Amino acid sequence: MNHILNSMIEAKHFDENVCDEILMEFQDYLDNVALKHSHFSKFSPENLRVDEFFYETMNTSKYRNLWKVVEMLLLLSHGQATVEKGFSINKKVEVENMKELLCVSQRLICGYIN
Asked: What is the superkingdom listed in this entry's lineage (predicted)?
């Protein structure tokens, strides 16, 4: 949690003064919710979404700052920009009736140049 908060402070998402409160809320959450409730050990991602699970257990006035951190982490982009960029490069180097080995070679050259 310290590493996460340090990263968020550097990105100016949180003020340093709030971090102590967040750390205390996190420790309280671990001690009083996560370790004492059996639904944590029985959590199954096939049956329940992670965001709903944490929302139900964390979105209270007692853990309001901690919930903001968790919510930001859950909203991080998991985009496919790298994969789509690869398709775009393939389209640029692709020529009709190109052999597979030639295509792979051109992709390696483009990757090296980039």
From this structure: Eukaryota
